[in-house]
Design a protein that fits this description.
By secondary structure, this protein is an all-alpha fold. The chain has 3 helices and no strands. It has one domain (3-62). Helix 1 packs parallel to helix 3 and helix 2 packs across helix 3. InterPro entries: DUF3562.
Amino acid sequence: MNQDRLFASLAALARDLSISDDALRRMLDDEIATLTKDARVHDYLRIFAIRRLRQRMRSLNAAGGYPERPKPGR
């Protein structure tokens, strides 16, 4: 999966969780900064950051940390 598709899936999850584009961008920037600190190779940091952030968002949602957007018709 290329970086654009990974980011698109992360953005879709953020929309489902009612996370704004600005908040998502800050979260991704923070994740990249965290990974950059100890990285020797920087080629795939954005991919790793997207994957880690997506997993963290899913985990928080499963634990009730993010209220999901109401489904249409409810």
